[in-house]
Amino acid sequence: MTNDTPHCGSVPRRIGVVEDHAVAVAGLRQILADEPDLMIVAAATTVSELLAITTDLDLAMLDLRLPDGSSPIANVEQLRRAGIETLVFTSGDEPFMVRAAARAGVLGVVRKSERGEVVASAIRDAAMGRLVATMDWAAAIDADEDFAQVNLSPRQRDVLGLYASGEPAARVAKLSGLTEDTVNAYLGRIRQKYAEAGRPARTKTELYKRALEDGWLPIPRRRH
């Protein structure tokens, strides 16, 4: 697992990749081909698939948008429970997902468009447990003050998830075993919490966005 002590001799750091584009994985393999201290030992399209292959990793490289719709926060937490720290590897075109990963405590964020030597250096630092202070990572941290996490109870998260995904309040009540009045009361409290955090959620569309941002809903799948 990740630590601050360099590997002895020629034993390379073990890297896992969570990425659903074979071209991106091939690109990473090419970048690390001339780096004897770094080796990709496993690649998968989801975190669960990677951990089923191996947990003996010094670092996981994580794409933010995956085919199972999982949230960056959930993925980082799942990897950390397995004792593995994370470096985000992203196109960087969805800032809210980068912010979510930064809040989850990743070691850094590196863009797929970076030069190979920059990517290799970032992987090496992260595999040794060091923060990778790129501009994307710093910007995500700085923006966090304007993107305060809203703490919802498990029941509030359930109600928000159902309602924001398109269910009417009456249907949410039936699915959750609550009365419709109780569901509406929950929604009012949820909206109030987001308003107090400076993240308005007045409409159903805004509630949907907030649920995505905080990982209460699965990330929409890519359209190919």
Automatic annotation (TrEMBL):
Pfam families: GerE (PF00196), Response_reg (PF00072)
GO MF: DNA binding
Gene3D superfamilies, per database record: 3.40.50.2300, Winged helix-like DNA-binding domain superfamily/Winged helix DNA-binding domain
SMART domains on file: HTH_LUXR, REC
Cited InterPro entries: CheY-like_superfamily, NreC/VraR/RcsB-like_REC, Sig_transdc_resp-reg_C-effctor, Sig_transdc_resp-reg_receiver, Tscrpt_reg_LuxR_C, WalR-like, WH-like_DNA-bd_sf
Domain Response regulatory intervals: 14-127
Name this polypeptide is given: Response regulator transcription factor
Organism: Antrihabitans stalactiti
